[in-house]
Specification:
With 432 residues, the protein is an alpha+beta fold. The chain folds into 3 domains: 157 residues, no CATH class; 44 residues, no CATH class; 161 residues, no CATH class. The chain is built from 20 helices and 12 strands. The strands form 4 sheets. Strands 3-4-5-6 form a 4-stranded antiparallel β-sheet, sandwiched between helices. The chain has a 4-stranded mixed β-sheet with strand order 7-8-9-10, with helices on one face. Strand 8 and strand 9 form a beta hairpin. Helix 11 runs antiparallel to helix 14 and helix 17 packs across helix 18. The mean pLDDT is 91.
Length: 432
């Protein structure tokens, strides 16, 4: 993974924690979770407080996600809101954290001046053992504590202040008054500083979970749709009157669902020609064939002229696979007629011709599913399904890894927003 680290393709855009008082607060939060404090004097964190260095030290990348549900978090600074989430079991963890930061900005800003917030994003289940457990998660509640107990002291000061106002002789209680002064030195004036987060419950809508080999849950007004491995416990048995089940290995049903619910853009010249998506996927298909032909080749020579020469010299291999010629045919069809009859396309190839509808709230989740079903496009996989990309990357030859890192660095990383806008029609988003 060293190449990915150096190119900031993994654990990129993290926040460096170098101040001793912040390290101390982080350690108090770890102790609050029953974990061993870190001996590191410096480390990096993501939006949730996850640190790859601390994970390596503890030998546990799930130290903030022990049961892959009820995710833990550590907030040292409001700046974490602008960071990515680099390790999670649910695709909407970042969205939930954003909601928490936005809804409680004043409290977070005030508390983190003197303390760190930590706790859990509590779901309605303690463990996920079947699809029913995933389906039962409709909302989450943030259980929030503070490393120096500023929250507890603020609550105590509030109670004492209320007593001072409600009990006529309370002002004579010197012990209570001295305690209030002591507490105020830490909390400040709680009439001016909002220290206790006041919105802690948030909706848990459509998401991907890494349980049972990866499970997609899409939520519509009258029905919920699960796309997963049919061997997952509870498949077609959990709430069959409320839930529709689709096998992850059934491209026709998946495509029909996405089209019927308006989650994808069908092939139209209006977006296809300007996006260059088909040209991009055709190139990805050809590169995949070159890698398949010789994983040990010198990929530094892989450029457009070399790739065209490879295609001509390996016409039989290219025709047998069929993906590259199919996309070339679709490019011509769009140019000639402006559209494609999707019904005439083999179901397994239909995902090569679509992208998530940019204005749909599930655009990132839908693009994640499409990228999983078109795995030869490692660029799309990196953007929308990083865990799937990292898993695939581990199986690449060393030379191809170097090429993949170079390709992503020279294209996507140079202009993330512009690249996503052009190919997929979507703009700024912290998911990537």
């Amino acid at each position: 993974m060293n190449r990915l680290l150096e190119a900031e393709l993994i654990y990129g855009r993290l926040l460096a924690v170098t101040e001793p008082h912040l390290v101390a607060r982080y350690n108090k939060a770890l102790s609050g979770f029953g974990l061993k404090p870190t001996a590191l004097s410096e480390f990096d964190i993501d939006m949730t407080g996850f640190s790859p260095q601390v994970a390596a030290e503890l030998g546990d990348k799930d130290y903030l996600d022990p049961n892959r549900v009820n995710r833990r978090f550590i907030v040292l600074t409001p700046e974490q809101e602008n960071l990515p989430v680099v390790h999670t079991s649910f695709s909407n963890t970042a969205g939930l954290m954003h909601e928490f930061f936005t809804a409680n900005a004043r409290a977070i800003n005030s508390v983190t001046i003197k303390d760190a917030l930590y706790g859990e994003i509590e779901d309605s289940v303690a463990r996920v053992e079947s699809l029913e457990d995933l389906l039962s998660i409709n909302a989450v509640q943030f259980k929030v504590l503070s490393a120096e107990d500023v929250l507890g002291k603020a609550a105590e000061l509030r109670r004492l202040a209320d007593r001072l106002q409600s009990e006529p002789d309370a002002w004579r209680d010197d012990v209570m008054l001295n305690r209030m002064v002591e507490l105020a030195k830490l909390t400040g004036d709680i009439r001016q500083n909002v220290l206790v987060p006041d919105k802690l419950v948030f909706r848990h809508d459509a998401f991907w979970a890494n349980h049972f080999g990866g499970t997609y849950v899409f939520v519509d007004e009258k029905i919920t749709t699960v796309i997963s491995d049919p061997a997952a416990p509870g498949f077609r048995r959990s709430r069959p009157w409320q839930v529709s089940y689709i096998s992850i290995r059934d491209p026709k049903q998946i495509f029909d669902f996405l089209a019927r619910t308006g989650r994808i853009e069908l092939p139209r010249a209006s977006w296809v020609e300007g996006s260059g998506l088909y040209v991009h996927r055709a190139e990805m298909a050809a590169i995949a064939l070159a890698y398949e032909a010789d994983p040990a080749m010198d990929f530094s020579k892989l450029e457009p002229v070399w790739l065209q020469t490879f295609i001509h010299r390996n016409a039989e291999r290219v025709a047998r696979d069929g993906t590259y010629p199919f996309l070339q045919e679709m490019i011509r069809a769009i140019g000639t007629s402006g559209s494609i009859r999707i019904e005439d396309v083999e179901p397994s190839r239909r995902f090569l011709l679509v992208r998530a509808k940019p204005e749909h709230r599930d655009q990132w989740l839908t693009n994640r599913l499409i990228s999983q079903l078109t795995p030869m496009d490692f660029v799309s996989r990196f953007i929308f399904d990083k865990q799937g990309f990292y898993d695939a990357y581990e199986g690449f030859s060393d030379g191809f890894r170097e090429y993949v890192v170079s390709r992503l660095s020279q294209t996507y990383l140079k202009d993330k927003a512009g690249f996503r806008k052009r190919l997929y029609g979507i703009g700024e988003d912290d998911n990537a």
